Every structure is written in C-alpha cells, then in structure tokens.
Amino acid sequence: MATYGNGVIKRGLEIVRNMPRIRIDNVKDNPGARKQEKRRGRGQTRGKRSGRGHKGQRQRGIPPRLGYEGGQSPFYLSVPKEPYYAGHHLRRQYLPVSLHMLQYLVDMGRLNPEEPVDLTSLVNARAVTIDIIKKHYGVQLVSEGKDEFQAQLNIEVQWATEDVIAAVERNSGVITLGFYDLQSVEALAHPLIFFQRGLPIMRRSLPPKDLVDFYTNPENRGYLSDPEKVRKARFDLAQKFGYELPDLSKDNRYQMLSMRKDPRQIFYGLQPGWVVNLKDKTVLKPTDEGLLEYYKS
After folding, report:
1. How far apart are CA 214 and CA 273, in angstroms?
2. Local structure of residue 19 (DSSP, 8 states)
3. How far is CA 53 from the centre of its chain?
4. For the chain, the helix, strand and coil percentages under 3-state DSSP, each to the nearest 5
C-alpha cells in the first residue's frame, strides 16, 4: 500500500480547506447540460411566423375539438350502432390457459401438484397477467393439449367446457368453477400488495343473476352446486367419454383433493375478516359478535 508524506497530506488538506463550500445558491448544472431554446418571432433573424405557418387554426393555436373531421360525417357517427355492441365495455373477460400450458408448468416445477391450484398459483407461475381495468374476471381453461394432459390437480378456474372437465377428472383430478368479483380478483392476483395495506380480507361476492344458473349447475362443477349431485355428474361424464372414474377416497392425496373454498372465501386457509400482518408474521382474527356475524358465510 502506498504511503504519503506529511507534506502531501498538509497540501491536500489546505486545498480542501480553501475550496468553496457547496450551498443551495452555488449549485448549478455542468456546462452544456442545458441548451437555451431558440426564441422565435422576434426580428428578421428569428423568423416571421415562428414555425407555425401562415394563418389558420394551427397558427392561432385554436385546433378543432376532438373527433371533428372538417365538416364530413365523423367516424363515430358513420359507423352503425349494432345491438350486439351494447354493453361491450362491461363484458367479463376470462384469460385462456390451455391444458398444454398447465402440464408444462407442472413439469417445469412452476406449479406444485401437491397443493390446490387457484388464480394466485397461476399468476405466480406467470401463466396469466391479471388487469382488472380490462375486466379480467379470472381464467378459462381451454382444451388445447387435452390428450397429453396427465397431471393430477385440484384446480379452481372461472370457466371451462365439458371436455376440459373430463380431461382433468380422467387423471384423478378435481376441478371447480368459482366466481370472483373484481376486488377479489385483484386480491388473488396480487396478495402481497393486498396484505401490505393492512385491510381485513373481504367477503367474496356472490355471482350476478346471469351466472347463478351456471355456478349452481353440477355439470359445470359450480362452486355453489350440491356435492352429492357433483358426484353423480362426475360418474355420468365418465360414462359419456368412456373412461373409468377413479375412487378419490383411496388416493394418497385425498385430503388435498378434497380441499374446497367456502363460497365467501378468497384465500385458502384464510377466512374473511382476518387481517394478515406481514411485519409481525401474525394473523389477527375478529372477536366482535357483529363482525363475526357479518363475515359469516
């Protein structure tokens, strides 16, 4: 390591002592950091029209209103108003996830088949990206790759067809279709952000009127359907597609496969009304009778 004599040290201290101190009034940008704008319209050397041209709306700074097309019929009036466009901005959107993608996520270890799979698991596995502004109400499971699907899962999605349900149940799996409102979808998609707010877990809203029949139908494996009717529907679907329905009660994963959320529950293992404290790693539960009655399913 290099050593310096006393003279060099004294000289350095003297230079530092004589340098001006940094204050608010003497802090400025480096030379050339800011370029002075060219002032237009102030004499012959600066131009006559300031780069705006001769006369008209653009020179005077009064552009037409948004959507004005110079007098001709504007686009939003020339396009006919069809009845099937009504309420298009309110339609619920379900992001597609194929069975091929689901099998790929399991094979790559991004989905754990030993635990129930819901919207949180799919978002963490980077299968979908949820944006509630675009009316994303969850995930629909599509049939692409149904012949090569071999994973045994307890999965909850928001939409699925008959052949997709058969592909999951043929491999001793369980599929449930559940509805979530937009606030619940945002909490499921971003649980860490939700828990950091320190808010109690809200109740999941019941489905709207147009979806009640869908989620109470055992053939759709709706989360509001009767479990006994679901068992019969599982047997009927196996007879229709020609496969032997496995007995889940004898399966080693029966406890995991039988896990199911309450109709008002959002997260597995966490009930509505609980507050998750990430800093102290504790869960606060309500004790007031009024709150218990409110959050009760």
Report:
1. 28
2. S
3. 48
4. 40, 10, 50
